[in-house]
Specification:
Layout (H helix, E strand, L loop, with lengths): L1 E4 L5 H16 L4 E8 L6 E8 L2 H8 L2 H6 L1 H4 L28
Protein name: Antibiotic biosynthesis monooxygenase family protein
Keywords: Monooxygenase, Oxidoreductase
GO molecular function: monooxygenase activity
Length: 103
């Protein structure tokens, strides 16, 4: 999950750039789904969420040429905060200190 603060006067162009970034990520192996959203109460707050088969698939996607060209410049604008989450499924221990699989 990546959040972005975008001034109103940049929203139209940012939306186009963010969709291009989302599509570049979606074209990579291991991508399961992704969506763009805009906050209802604070329209300058945007989000890009994506789900991947594994952490490794996501990291490999970031190193591809098209993602570096179309997504990385947009992702660079993200709010500086942790962006990787794991599903909190019933019965699953959270924040497991063991190493995660890179896929």
């Amino acid at each position: 999950m990546n959040r972005f603060r975008v001034p109103e006067d940049e929203a139209e162009g940012f939306r186009v750039d963010l969709e291009r970034a989302r599509q570049a990520l979606a074209d990579r192996p291991g991508h399961l789904e992704s969506r763009i959203g805009r906050n209802l109460d604070e329209p300058t707050l945007w989000v890009l969420t994506s789900t991947w088969e594994s952490t490794g698939a996501y990291r490999r996607a970031l190193s591809s040429y098209d993602v570096k060209l179309h997504a990385v410049p947009v992702l660079y604008r993200a709010v500086d905060e942790p962006s990787a989450y794991e599903w909190a499924e019933p019965g699953r221990d959270l924040n497991d200190a063991s190493a995660r699989s890179l896929g």
